[in-house]
From TrEMBL:
It comes from the Bacteria. This is DUF2786 domain-containing protein. Residues 299-398 form the DUF7168 domain. Residues 1-14 have a biased composition (Basic and acidic residues). It comes from Rugosimonospora africana. Signal peptide: none annotated. Pfam families: DUF2786 (PF10979), DUF7168 (PF23771). InterPro entries: DUF2786 (IPR024498), DUF7168 (IPR055592). Residues 233-272 form the DUF2786 domain. Residues 1-48 are annotated as: Disordered. Residues 15-34 have a biased composition (Basic residues).
Length: 461
């Protein structure tokens, strides 16, 4: 009897549940037809006849939030963030939302990598367009995504970026990540989720760019040795010499250290170019991107451009994302980065030591002075490098022989030009702004004092 009554109650309860579902579905259909939703579910995500899982609900709300972010619909965005903060289904729903948000971040990070973006570039974009905390969020997402790859299958330049970012998984469980990250940043749950949505939107709207190296997971042949143009011992010696040139207060010492560094780079580059031509090695131009950050990013990018051109490379600045893309042969790219870094250190030191005067109205002119200073510095460095390059052409042609050297250099220049034009078929040129004569004159004078003795060696192929 007891079991029979229990069966009757279960059957009755089942009939009641079906009745409630039919009423709810009918009410949902009427609301959808009228274009309205219940106050408890303003987005209408819980009204579907086939009730989705917590994860599916979270994914739907995240999609809705990213679209609202794209449309700048703040009211809908706030509603979505509130639903995600509460979590569908209470406490367990909060953990589901946390994991779904992190999973979505990892998916977008990997998609950006496949579109050519590297770790440091993603973090730079997040910091430039939002705030420091957005960059920290991306560092964590990158660290989490890297768990899928063996370090043996990760390119050395990627590993260097990851080390510089200090990308580490510091949280204990992915289900708690969004919550503990928000606590670290001093944000409430809705604020933490809003930050994640902003980063997801940014990642989803990044354009594809040129790939500059293998993605994580690309197999590195066992026992592979780096090519001659990436001789780490030589680069270590060059860096040490340039560090001494940057730190000394005596111009003569700086000149000597810089000249020796340039001599090493030049010998390495010339030997490699001639060897490649002799052996028929298929040495091809490559692409590298160098971050150029504010303040005064325009004249800094100009300095990088003139150094790149002196090293038979081509460069273009992408202002929106804060990097300069350089196309050239590997040894020339190394020389460009090293020399640019050293000259930028010297320029910054000279710029900060120079004291601008106030204008005739007593206004502070520091910003315009420094902008003009660095622009003039880059312009004058370019002139000096051009002169040095012409001298080198004459010296090396006489030493090696025009018939042997000039065709090699011309072929490499053509290869760089073709690779660059393929990547950037349409370019917009922008003239540098000069609005402080004192800064311009001071910058040119500083460029004349910059350590370039021996520069002619670096300009050679």
């Amino acid at each position: 009897m007891a079991s029979g009554r229990a069966g009757e109650r279960m059957g009755k309860n089942s009939r009641e549940r079906h009745k409630v579902k039919r009423k709810a579905a009918a009410a949902s259909q009427r609301r959808r037809a009228a274009g309205t939703h219940s106050p408890e579910d303003p987005l209408g995500l819980f009204e579907a006849p086939n009730i989705p899982s917590q994860r599916q609900l979270a994914e739907q709300i995240i999609d809705q939030a990213v679209r609202a972010q794209h449309r700048a619909d703040l009211a809908e965005l706030d509603q979505c963030c509130a639903l995600l903060a509460a979590g569908p289904g209470g406490a367990t729903g909060i953990q589901v939302v946390n994991r779904t948000l992190l999973t979505r971040l990892l998916r977008e990070v990997e998609h950006a990598w496949r579109d050519g973006w590297q770790p440091a570039e993603l973090v730079r974009v997040a910091r430039r367009e939002y705030a420091t905390r957005h960059g920290r969020l991306l560092v964590d997402a990158i660290a989490a995504q890297m768990r899928s790859y063996s370090s043996a299958t990760v390119d050395q330049r990627w590993q260097s970026q990851l080390a510089a970012l200090d990308a580490q998984v510091w949280w204990e469980h992915d289900d708690h990540y969004v919550s503990v990250w928000g606590d670290r940043q001093g944000l409430d749950r809705a604020g933490a989720i809003a930050t994640v949505i902003e980063v997801l939107h940014r990642l989803a709207t990044l354009p594809p760019i040129e790939k500059v190296g293998p993605m994580p997971g690309a197999a590195v042949p066992a026992g592979a040795t780096p090519p001659a143009d990436l001789d780490q011992r030589m680069l270590h010696r060059v860096r040490a010499l340039l560090a001494k040139a940057e730190s000394t207060e005596f111009p003569e010492e700086a000149d000597a250290f810089t000249a020796k560094a340039q001599e090493l780079m030049a010998r390495h580059r010339i030997d490699h170019a001639l060897l490649a031509a002799t052996t028929g090695e298929r040495d091809q131009p490559r692409t590298r991107r160098v971050g150029v950050d504010n303040p005064y990013e325009a004249p800094k990018s100009l300095l990088l451009q003139v150094v790149a051109e002196a090293n038979s490379c081509r460069a273009v600045w992408t202002k929106r994302f804060g990097f300069t893309t350089i196309v050239g042969f590997p040894a020339d790219l190394d020389s460009t980065e090293l020399l640019f870094t050293s000259l930028l250190v010297q320029a910054t030191r000279a710029m900060t030591q120079a004291k601008p005067s106030a204008d005739r109205y007593g206004r502070n002119t520091t910003r315009s002075f420094r902008q003009s200073f660095l622009t003039a510095y880059a312009s004058r460095i370019g002139e000096r490098l051009d002169t040095a390059t012409e001298e080198v052409d004459r010296e090396m042609t006489a030493s090696v022989g025009a018939a042997q050297l000039l065709p090699v250099l011309a072929a490499r220049d053509d290869a760089v030009r073709d690779a660059f034009e393929k990547q950037f078929p349409e370019l917009t040129h922008q003239a540098a702004a000069i609005n402080n004569r004192e800064g311009w004159a001071s910058g040119r004078a500083a460029a004349d004092r910059a350590s370039l003795h021996g520069r002619q060696a670096v300009a050679q192929e």
